[in-house]
Design a protein that fits this description.
The complex is a heterotrimer.
Chain A lengths: L4 H34 L5 H5 L2 E2 L4 E2 L2 H32 L4 H15 L2 H15 L6 H25 L3 H9 L4 H30 L2 H4 L19 H10 L4 H32 L2
Antiparallel strand pairs in A: 1-2
Helix pairs in contact in A: 1-11, 3-6, 3-8, 4-6, 5-6, 6-8, 7-8, 8-11, 10-11
Chain B lengths: L1 H44 L1 H5 L4 E2 L4 E2 L2 H32 L2 H14 L4 H19 L7 H11 L1 H13 L3 H9 L4 H12 L1 H17 L2 H7 L16 H8 L5 H34 L1
Antiparallel strand pairs in B: 1-2
Helix pairs in contact in B: 1-13, 3-6, 3-7, 3-10, 5-6, 5-11, 6-11, 7-10, 8-9, 10-13, 12-13
Chain C lengths: L3 E12 L2 E12 L3 E5 L6 H8 L11 E7 L3 E2 L6 H7 E4 L10 H12 L4 H14 L3 H4 L12 H13 L5 E5 L7 H14 L4 E5 L3 H7 L2 E6 L2 E7 H6 L4 H7 L5
Parallel strand pairs in C: 3-8, 3-9, 6-7, 7-8
Antiparallel strand pairs in C: 1-2, 1-4, 4-5, 9-10
Classes of the chains: A mainly alpha, B mainly alpha, C alpha/beta.
Chain lengths: 278, 287, 252
């Protein structure tokens, strides 16, 4: 007996719609649970005071600071390297075995799991370079981790700039570097910025690579060589050691909220930049 | 003017080249240091004793990580079994059925939600999934099932996003041709679009696997940390990643080297997965 | 009588292994409009890429002959092409405004030259836009995006942009293809005034435009210069049969 293909079509459409909605629902549920359970505990006091009793009481201020520091500084290291690499690969060479090698390097870096970065950062920065568990070790490790993302997104953004803009710039007497800085980068800026924002989000969510390079000190770091604890690490410790469910939810909420804000800011800036001149 | 400018341009080119080479440099030193810490133990104790050994008691000289290799594979497969069909259904819907407005809302939402830190998944797994399993299915709740569920959810955005790209790059002409011949939408999707996007979809699965097998913190929270080879879905386990993360802070000497050896094994597995995925993606491009 | 601005002797150029210019001898006179006409693939584009410094020497296997620009020097592979491009401006077939404001588009080249003072730039931009017959239409919206202009306005903007560099030579490569007749007329009117201060080369497949707008004309065909002379003469009494056929529209 042959089943009516139209019936199957309708069933499958329904099934697929359900799957899509279910997927989104799961992910939305996660955010909602964190929000509902955490919101009551996110007070200004929570954000600005120091932790007490291993985090059972008090707030997360030092962790906010460490997280901010990690996010900003790791991007500060990775961005010039990343954009420079992207510029080199797109504007200054043709495809050759060297560029293939470099791209292989970038792809491989992208594929390395965070725990391996943790192992590497630990043995290289913390031990061999004697930086100890410090903001510096953590920042350098995370900078290498997000570098491939910045390279990839920057390259895509630069490639998307129409070729005739380069022609025009050259015809007006610009050198290659002037063309890159005055025409190409400004046009590619929205895409590049998105990549940067995405990387900040990743840096801030990272736990495995951070905990073994930055440590987990409860104190507010006074210098770059001090150990620190990011919000993600704090959240992990609170959860795993069972210290405080409420504080864990609250920390998670602040963390997710920060990432959401960064992502939304990225989209907003990107749209404004695109709308301004096209 | 000419020479000065040419020198400046050459200098810039050189600096940019050095920047570009830095990626290779970083890759190189990562490999060097991981290998230099991890490989000597293989030489000292024997590759077989480590990779096939079943007893992990590093302070006593037993470095067998076979149970962890098995566990890693089991939860990764589990994550794929649970997550891939759902993710593929989601991406198929997004690519083939969703209207422009729906797409504009759903796609960024998925990307935003991909930014949820992995520790949060683990946490919610401990708070909700583990007790549920403990109550209704037995065991401690910390199990392959719990881990696979958590990992499966975690890799949903990855697989959805990459398979979506693969589906979207199937030329419109394929769909139009099939519909013109009287096929229904589902028949078109099932017989024409999905097969055409096959390489990209498979690549998304492999990349999802790569993400699952490399995940550390979420796994630690729900896996239960048992050193035996798990025999049932409800058994607790320890993966390669959790092995490293649980003991690195206080390990010394050969113990620490054994953790790096675990890292080497993990790297080999993941690099192989990535090579396979890249190969498949290239096949799609060549087609 | 006429001063030669650009002297070309025996110019040969290859694209890969193919010869695209086969011994060109040409004098381009100062403060005149030189029209270059000929069917597609006649070598016109390759010829102008030598003059405006946009030639990519990696693509061209051989470059022989002498090209001398009065006030600049001899052209060769070793020429400082960046400096050349500041002296020879180009307007392309499709208007390509930079994704910036109208003001910034025109000021772009001057900023590259180092002009920084706002008052200087203001004056330069106004002057260039006036010469391109665009000033009246945009003087109140200089900070708006250049992409909002119509095709004809954008092309005049590209002309103004080039003029801001105060180049010796202005090269226009099919500047009016795709433009409405009014915009075309405005550009041709601009050219007739601009030639007082610049040397102009106008490349076009449109023989009628060449007839209208140029003082001298050179007819290229399959990489060779078939004929060259005053426009009136070449169009009414050409010396070569090939020229006559092309002018009459028998091929093209």
């Amino acid at each position: 007996m042959r089943i009516n293909p139209r019936l199957i079509d309708k069933l499958m459409r329904g099934g697929l719609t359900f799957q899509a909605l279910f997927t989104v629902a799961i992910l939305v549920a996660i955010v909602l649970i964190i929000f509902v359970k955490g919101f009551p505990y996110v007070t200004t006091e929570f954000i600005f005071s120091y932790p007490e009793d291993m985090g059972r009481l008090g707030g997360i201020f030092p962790f906010l600071v460490s997280t901010l520091f990690l996010g900003v500084l790791s991007i500060a290291f990775a961005t010039p390297l990343g954009i420079g690499t992207a510029i080199y690969l797109t504007e200054y060479t043709k495809e050759s075995s060297l560029t293939r090698c470099i791209r292989f390097g970038v792809e491989s870096l992208a594929g390395i799991p965070s725990i391996i970065y943790g192992l590497f950062g630990f043995i290289f920065f913390v031990i061999k370079l004697r930086m100890g568990w410090s903001l510096l070790s953590g920042t350098l490790t995370i900078a290498i981790m997000v570098l491939p993302t910045i390279i990839r997104t920057s390259e895509e953004a630069i490639k998307a700039v129409p070729n005739n803009l380069r022609t025009v710039s050259f015809s007006l007497g610009a050198t290659k570097w002037e063309t890159v800085t005055r025409v190409i980068i400004p046009s590619a800026a929205p895409g590049i910025l998105t990549g940067i924002m995405l990387s900040i989000g990743r840096a801030v969510s990272e736990t495995a690579a951070v905990i073994f390079t930055m440590g987990s000190s409860l104190r507010l770091p006074a210098s770059i060589m001090d150990s620190g604890r990011t919000m993600a690490v704090h959240f992990y410790i609170l959860a795993r050691e069972g210290i405080s469910l409420e504080k864990a939810y609250a920390t998670a909420l602040v963390l997710i909220f920060s990432i959401l804000v960064i992502n939304i800011l990225a989209y907003y800036i990107m749209h404004r930049m695109i709308a301004r001149f096209s | 003017m000419n020479r000065r400018l040419a020198n400046k341009e050459n200098a810039i080119r050189l600096v940019l080249l050095l920047f570009a080479l830095s990626s290779l440099l970083f890759l190189f030193i990562i490999f060097i240091f991981i290998l230099s810490e991890g490989v000597p133990l293989f030489a000292k104790v024997g590759v077989k004793n480590i990779t096939m050994g079943t007893r992990w008691a590093p302070t006593k000289g037993f470095f067998g990580i076979f149970p962890m290799i098995v566990s890693s594979f089991m939860v990764t497969l589990g994550a794929l079994v649970l997550g891939a069909p759902l993710a593929l259904g989601c991406s198929t819907y997004l690519s083939e059925y969703a209207g422009k407005k729906t797409k504009m809302v759903l796609k960024p939402s998925l990307e935003l939600l991909a930014g949820i830190p992995s520790v949060v998944y683990g946490f919610l797994g401990v708070v909700y999934i583990v007790p549920l399993i403990r109550e209704y299915l037995g065991g401690s709740g910390f199990s392959i099932l719990a881990t696979s569920l958590v990992l499966g959810i975690m890799i949903l955005p990855t697989i959805t996003s990459i398979s979506f790209d693969a589906l979207m790059s199937v030329p419109a002409a394929f769909r139009e041709g099939s519909l013109a011949m009287g096929a229904t939408k589902w028949q078109t999707v099932y017989k024409v679009v999905l097969p055409a996007a096959r390489s990209g979809i498979l690549a998304s699965f492999i990349l999802g696997m790569g993400r699952a097998i490399g995940e550390t913190m979420a796994v630690i929270m729900v896996a239960g940390n048992a050193l035996k080879i798990p025999t049932s879905l409800l058994d607790p386990l320890r993966t390669l990643t959790s092995n490293i993360a649980l003991e690195l802070a206080y390990a010394t000497g050969d113990h620490r080297r054994a953790l790096f050896s675990t890292g080497v094994v993990l790297l080999v597995i993941i690099m192989s997965l990535n090579l396979v995925a890249n190969f498949w993606v290239k096949r799609r491009v060549d087609k | 009588m006429h001063r030669t601005k650009i002297r070309v002797r025996n110019l040969r150029l290859c694209f890969g292994k193919k010869e695209v210019l086969n011994g060109i001898d040409l004098d381009i006179y100062e403060n005149r409009v030189m029209g270059l006409m000929g069917p597609s693939a006649s070598g016109k584009s390759s010829f102008i890429s030598v003059i405006n410094g946009m030639i990519n020497f990696e693509d061209h296997a051989c470059f022989k002959g002498q090209v001398h620009i009065d006030g600049f020097g001899e052209l060769s592979e070793k020429t400082d092409h960046v400096a050349l491009r500041k002296r020879v401006g180009t307007v392309f077939a499709t208007p390509i405004p930079l994704p910036r404001s109208i003001f910034e588009n025109v000021a772009f080249g001057s900023r590259l030259k180092g002009v920084k003072k706002r008052s200087e730039l203001n004056a330069l931009v106004a002057e260039s836009l006036k010469k391109a017959f665009l000033w009246d239409e945009v003087k109140n919206r200089l900070s708006e995006s250049a992409l909002k202009l119509s095709g004809g306005q954008q092309q005049r903007l590209c002309l103004a942009r080039t003029l801001a560099l105060k180049p010796d030579v202005i090269l226009l490569d099919e500047p009016c293809s795709g433009l409405d007749p009014i915009s075309t007329a405005k550009i041709e009117e601009a050219l007739s005034e601009l030639k007082r201060d610049h040397t102009i080369i106008l490349v076009s497949n449109n023989t009628k435009q060449i007839a209208r707008a140029s003082d001298f004309v050179a007819f290229f065909y399959m990489g060779k210069l078939i004929e060259f002379g005053p426009t009136v003469k070449v169009f009414t009494n050409p010396e070569q049969k090939l020229t006559e056929d092309y002018v009459l529209g028998k091929f093209g």
